[in-house]
Design a protein that fits this description.
alpha+beta; Beta-clip-like; 3-stranded antiparallel sheet; 3 helices; 10 strands; binds S-adenosylmethionine; binds zinc ion
């Protein structure tokens, strides 16, 4: 569904989850497109080299991984979508179209004041050490929080080891 452009749907504010977040400023109906995740398109390798430059948050990321393995790096030419946090029980979802454009849609009706969030499903290479798990720890506060920003399958697989 196309976005309702008659009134602005969101605002960037400080978030109880992490840093800045994006909040609904009016009701957003289920299925509505809210914002495109914009940024520079590049390879996973190049994008990854640009992350981790903040010594206080070396695992902080603005990368969105596309189906073909490349990324949208929102640290360059990014829009407000780069401030949307992760939740394990999200009210939004990120959908990639056939041209590799990513749009954030409402998964359910979102009320004014609610923080927008989607499931990041992050992937990382190699073995997930205890330190890595801590680095990607989730603070979404959902009742069924899985405790990690990492993809469900990767998180589970690693936990079984
Ligand atoms: C695309 S940024 C989102 C904006 C971020 N809040 C900020 O102010 O920079 C993604 C980063 O936000 C943090 N983040 C997002 N959701 C989180 C969550 N549920 N728990 C902990 N950190 C989160 C992580 O550091 C992640 O790498
Ligand atoms: Zn969580």
């Amino acid at each position: 569904m196309m976005p309702d452009k008659t009134t602005k749907a969101y605002a960037v504010r400080s978030s109880p989850i992490h840093g800045r977040g994006v909040f609904a400023v009016r009701t957003i109906r289920k299925g509505n497109e809210i914002i495109e995740y914009r940024g520079q398109r590049t390879s996973w390798e190049i994008g990854s080299e640009r992350q981790g430059l903040d010594p206080d948050e070396p695992y902080h990321t603005f990368l969105f991984e596309l189906d073909d393995g490349s990324v949208i790096d929102a640290s360059l030419r990014g829009n407000a979508a780069r401030w949307i946090n992760h939740s394990c029980d999200p009210n939004c979802e990120a959908l990639e179209d056939d041209d590799g454009h990513v749009f954030i849609h409402a998964r359910r009706t979102v009320r004014a004041g609610e923080e927008l969030a989607y499931d990041y499903r992050l992937h990382v290479d190699g073995r997930i050490t205890k330190g890595m798990r801590e680095a990607y720890a989730c603070r979404c506060g959902a009742r069924r929080c899985r405790g990690s920003l990492l993809d469900k399958k990767q998180n589970k697989k690693q936990k079984r080891r």
